[in-house]
Amino acid sequence: MDEPSTEFPHGALGVFRPIVISVAPEHQAELTAIIDWKAGRIGMMDLMSRLEALQRKRSDVLVEP
């Protein structure tokens, strides 16, 4: 493989392409709550309540045999 294709596998302008990320399914609910808060759809207290509820739910799942 030649050097330019090694350094720029998506071409010379590939560095300007948008970054694509994914979120693990188990973290989707937290991300949705944060997006709602950032968009102004919920307040800080609602965000904290949602996150605490999700944490309790996960703790309950870990405790059960």
Describe this structure in words.
By secondary structure, the protein is mostly helical. It has a domain of 43 residues. Helix content is 55%, strand content 0%. The chain is built from 3 helices and no strands. Helix 2 runs antiparallel to helix 3. It is elongated.
Q: How much helicity do the residues have?
A: 55-70%
Unreliable residue stretches = none
The percentage of residues in β strands lies in under 5%
Structural class: mainly alpha
Pattern of helices and strands: HHH
Shape: elongated
Q: Determine the mean pLDDT.
A: 85
Largest sheet data: none
Radius of gyration: 20 Å
Total helical segments: 3
The span between the termini is 52 Å
Number of strands: 0
Short description:
The protein is an all-alpha fold and 65 residues long. It has three helices and no strands. It has helices at 3-7, 28-38, 44-63.
SSE layout:
Blueprint: H1 3-7, H2 28-38, H3 44-63
Helix pairs in contact: 2-3
Features:
single chain; 65 residues; mainly alpha
